[in-house]
Amino acid sequence: MSAHSPTQAPTAARVVELRGGDAQGESLGVDLAGHPGAELSALSGLGLPVPRGFVVTAAHGSGSGGVDGAALDEAVSALLRDASTDGAPPLLVFRPSPPVAARGLLEPILGIGLDEAAATALGARLGDRRAAAELRCRFTQMFGSAVGGIDPYYFEEELYAEKSAAGVRHDHQLNAEQLDSLAARYERLYLEHTGHPIPATPVAQIEAALRATARAWRGPEGLALRAASGTEHIGAPAAVVHVWIQSEFGADSVSGTMSTRDPVTGAPQRCGEFVRGRRGGEPPTTPQPISGIGLAETSLQELMPGVWQQLGALGGVLEGHFGAAQEVQFGVERGALWLLGCREATLSPAGTVRATVELVDAGVLTAEQALARIRPRSLDALLHPSLDPSAPRTLLAKGLAASPGAVTGAIVLTAADAEAAHEAGRSVILVRHETTPDDIRGMIAARGVLTARGGITSHAAVVARQMGKTCVAGCGDLEIDLRGQTVTIGGVRLAAGDAITLDGSTGSVLLGQIATVEASMSPALDTLLRWADERRTVGVCANADTVEDAERGRRFGAEGIGLARTEHMFFDGDRIHVMREMIVADSPAARAAALERLRPFQRRDFEGIFRVMDGLPVTIRLLDPPLHEFLPERREDIEALGRSMGRPPAAIRGLVARLHEKNPMLGHRGCRLAISHPEIYEMQTRAIFDAALSLWAEGLDPRPQILVPLVSMAEELVAIRARIEAVAGEYGERGERLRAIPVGAMIELPRACATADAIAAHADFLSFGTNDLTQTVFGFSRDDVATFLPAYIERGLVKDDPFVVLDVDGVGGLIELACRLARKQKPEITIGICGEHAGEPRSVRWLQRGLVDYVSCSPYRVPIARVAAAQR
Amino acid sequence: MSAHSPTQAPTAARVVELRGGDAQGESLGVDLAGHPGAELSALSGLGLPVPRGFVVTAAHGSGSGGVDGAALDEAVSALLRDASTDGAPPLLVFRPSPPVAARGLLEPILGIGLDEAAATALGARLGDRRAAAELRCRFTQMFGSAVGGIDPYYFEEELYAEKSAAGVRHDHQLNAEQLDSLAARYERLYLEHTGHPIPATPVAQIEAALRATARAWRGPEGLALRAASGTEHIGAPAAVVHVWIQSEFGADSVSGTMSTRDPVTGAPQRCGEFVRGRRGGEPPTTPQPISGIGLAETSLQELMPGVWQQLGALGGVLEGHFGAAQEVQFGVERGALWLLGCREATLSPAGTVRATVELVDAGVLTAEQALARIRPRSLDALLHPSLDPSAPRTLLAKGLAASPGAVTGAIVLTAADAEAAHEAGRSVILVRHETTPDDIRGMIAARGVLTARGGITSHAAVVARQMGKTCVAGCGDLEIDLRGQTVTIGGVRLAAGDAITLDGSTGSVLLGQIATVEASMSPALDTLLRWADERRTVGVCANADTVEDAERGRRFGAEGIGLARTEHMFFDGDRIHVMREMIVADSPAARAAALERLRPFQRRDFEGIFRVMDGLPVTIRLLDPPLHEFLPERREDIEALGRSMGRPPAAIRGLVARLHEKNPMLGHRGCRLAISHPEIYEMQTRAIFDAALSLWAEGLDPRPQILVPLVSMAEELVAIRARIEAVAGEYGERGERLRAIPVGAMIELPRACATADAIAAHADFLSFGTNDLTQTVFGFSRDDVATFLPAYIERGLVKDDPFVVLDVDGVGGLIELACRLARKQKPEITIGICGEHAGEPRSVRWLQRGLVDYVSCSPYRVPIARVAAAQR
Lengths: 872, 872
Hints:
Helix content of chain A: 40-55%
Mean pLDDT of chain A: 90
Shape of chain A: elongated
Radius of gyration of chain A: 34 Å
Number of helices of chain A: 33
Oligomer: homodimer
Structural class of chain A: alpha/beta
Distance between the termini of chain A: 21 Å
């Protein structure tokens, strides 16, 4: 039964001693002791210097009562007795200790017992009567707010009245007597509001604070918090009572926080800030760095070398216990160091990786534990440049974080302008309503892409991630005036050529240039990935269409190419013209002639990729998009095409109109092209065969696989396999080896899932295309989803964009069905997935449980998938 | 084990006697005796006059040998002996008797034994030497072709030589001697080609013919036939040998065919044609009617009243045995009637219904057998007018038979022109590239619709079927010149206003006006449908959007409205303007105001339908199409809309552009509209509630059901149900009854199938929308499928258009999954289907086996579905 289970039996609160620094007390968990209580209990357990005190554990169950009065009485008495200094009992701190953060609702009360007499004694001890008076005022106000439930407004009124009476303007101008008077005002306020004075004894104050804490926890705000955090079963949160370390005043007092590691790099060196104790009446001082010699500000290293040494020794102890970098709160009172809390430090992704790997090297964590501690998505930031966190910035608008990285460039509004600027050596951001394959060359030329429409899997987003370009998509606050060559982003009008910065990790569009920091594959990341590779059972491949993508994929550890799209190869350079000639050809002979001219291009593309991936599988998807995507849309481009082909523009226009589709996603594309125009796939098959033969002749080991897209029925695969076999037959004896090249089907339609057994019978492997599968399973066009999906997310109908995180219930159900049918038909079949979800950690973790043999994602996501696939 | 099972053990051929007309022989099946053999065996078994003879049964199995020589020898000897006339042995007929039609491959040989001596005897018997010589020539040629394998070309050469020698031009000018000479030429030809003469004895001729038959059956053409018909296991087809009834020559000889019923009406009266015997040298005579007195041509009734009487007595015997109207071949030789074969008569659909019902009345068939004999689709023709089969016609082009019926009208090219012409009282055919909802009013005004693009479930086709309008869709040979107001159909240029005729049952586009015949629900059809209703377990409802549709549905026997689409209600009259105001509204208040103006229209629509369907369920589907379908597309229409709303045209253009979707099928439509714009469904819900309350107040029994379209996740249904409940809450006490109105989900997306359990938990009923489900399961857009599906059908990848016949493997698999999940979650849930397939017989037969509780189809298809649902 989980500690958080709502069926837990009611338990009453107990009092558990914190044995400050000299002995090991009982170690308490968060559920029982809350966060501060558990931390102090743990630190105490490690023999570290924590203030003496005790934890009042949480009362579990709504019917459970508070702590036993006698036990509390005894604990307070013992504390006051044992921790007295020079015979004077110590002042105490009351800290509510909830199991979840509750700032503003449950605040600590510093200075339990700080009445007029105690203030006098404290003033004498500090040698600073004004400081003691100030602390007494604060205690009275804290107690009045937390226990008396008095609105801060009343305290401000009293402060204002006191300052008026004193004739001063600022708080720190009040002297000790005036502060005493103010404290008395606050005490009267308490009496007026509650009908009785502040309880006189520490134990009575603590009892009242405990009751107030339980009240707040059960009130409306607490209710919301408990409902949201699954802590309904906790009747009242725990509390900690300990000796007050008074580090705020006095030359030999400081307070601060220290991280055991550099948050940016993860290097094991103490980092942090501290504030020096001051004299009463002085304004608070600014924080200073803990470490460093000869800086502009005095460091703690210089100020209190002994304390600094002590802090340095903590790193190993804390990380050894907690298994992660820690941030500690500390106080120094009259030269003595006390730890007041600790929690896991928030490191940068790179820092987290380094720290985690070093903790494994130190024997603190196992590799499995280390892998489980990494959020795979955070690795994304390690592979792309990111904005310098310290750089100032002006946010113009927010879009979707479509492809990570941070880039600055001049606004361009057309692909042609992007190319021209790129050739002129300028960095540009391509800004479009949405992109089409016509924009590919512009996207290649641009450093980043910003679109007004389209979701996380729109053309712009997918292509950008594939290319590793930064992209912010679906930015609703973007208007484009192409004719005027201006854009309006978040109400700010900018001209083409003006600089903007995109942060593809947050979806931010920023004004002007912002400094960025580069990232690289660190040795620690390499180590982590090696551990992941040793543990995962699912293969990780890259989606790559170019030699550059393939190289990047191999560098990032891809075990092959799971998806090499061939369509982008037809947009490059002059090929698009030949492709268009093929499409507008008015006879099979003319079409065949154009295809023959495309074949050497394809062959060279394949040779290049095979060479990079030598010895690893390269899965080539035959042509997928509808032919009209290759034709121009604009009147002038159509006319130019007509001229270049010696055909009347009307003929080209007519063809464009004939090829127009109402729902191109569900139209004449994928292997449907091969049923109506078999010669296209035949050309591609020949190019694959030629490339393989040429590399075999060099003694290399190319391993092509042919992937047939958009299969909806086994009959399609049968017909296309027959054509591929026939092409192999053209190669005579050499055809034998070519015939062994695996042929697989892309499973990206519901019908392919429902008939996966029939398809598997004719396939050597299957590859789920989860982008298209998500579109057809939901009936969501990824190009149009931005018009309604935001309303779904806003109203809580869906938690995650199904194009980002695999929809386990619907799409996943069909994937499971398909895997079961396919494996029943052909147990030895290889099954992969090459959609966007292949690089999304939650999806990968789900998919790797016996469903698929490999995932294939964009090169930049390969490390993410490697880690995710190793997480159980 | 089926008789056609390929695993059947080899069996040798046997000889089985046909006991002509006087005794019952062994009755043989088609598999053993082939078609002619089985027919003659059956007729013989009925004691009817068939020629004496025998059947050589089929040798089953490729390893099986031919017939035993001794048995054949004995059978031929017995036949020649027992059937001799005046001491002369009879001439015989050899008829190959395959189990499937094999014209051109296996032809009979008439006149076995007809050598020179037999010809002389025959001439004497006929009193017509030339006739005998002609028959001998024909026998020799038949034998030479069938057994000798001699190309007809050689016989023509010889005939030409003989005519040249005789100095005549036409065959019939050859006299008896010259024909004898020709027969001798043919015999020489045989010798030259085969190396041996025509076998001398009848038994040798029959043995040779049997071998030739087996050879042909096993040859390439036979192979194809056997493969196509599943008769691979038959080693050689059967053959029939019987006495030759020589009805071709002589005054008291005739040959003919007779149907036991009128093929058009199905009335039990003998119909058919016969040819009178002629004299040698006369050209063949033309066929004359069998029945009738005082016609232009002499009938058999007049010529041979005795034979006519005999034929009349056959009807009851034959139909009583075969259970269906029959067509018999007969021959009369010298006044004696012989039956030579019979087969089921091809009646018109109306005739079939009448004949079948009458056979049940006569106790020949059970009602179940009668239902099983009806092809439900054929009923379609009974419900729509059809082309007069005898009318002359000029075919312009063929398209898809999208919606049945035959209509003539003047060509119009726009919806507005159709409306104007309709108001002027003219019949028009709306000719469009494709139709959109903008064309609805034009379609209402037109008698028929012809489109150049779009498949069997394109907008034009679906709406036309729904309306009962004739439609020919996807007519590729159609070009439209809107500016020039001309069309070119199959190369013929026509102007707007020219008349064309559409035959929606065949997809024909015909020039000018063609006469048609009206159809009505006959008493026989009523009887048949009553039997069907008594036997089917699945309900049959109609899809109807209007009062007229609802009335038609109820008239045709619908048990409710399974789908009342609400979108067409917004196109009528002025509503479209209000609808557009709602869409372009720039504030929620303006939108609400426009919706309030639409509400009374909706309410009246619903009241009208509820009234017609009083006491039966009416399932109202809330708004489904994307909003942009309601906006104009043309520049001038956009400007007009802007003017009428006092908004700048640019604003309207901008809105149209913003609402544009790349894949509207997968876009912002269906219940997605209700998530982003809840007020639309709220208005529709109020209109339904108002209509129900008003009819309840009248004491009527309206039974509305609310259907939520395009559900992809249970969360959508939950959110929309909550809104419907809230609207019911507005009605105070009366809301209780409104809250009981069932709310269901349309299951038309794969995800809805995969998560049907979760959806069923919140639904009172489910309704499969198989049109959209087929689109998303296959990834086929029904608007674009015409560009590639024909290639699939042509290449045999799919047998049936999945938009016509339910794809049982893929779409059906998901339907089964959904039914199983839904019923597991909620066993009492009602499940229906309202897509196109609900009116397609094969689909209905598949669906009714425990999957759905009801089907709902267009009113015209209701009778079809009623019959199909009763077929097991």
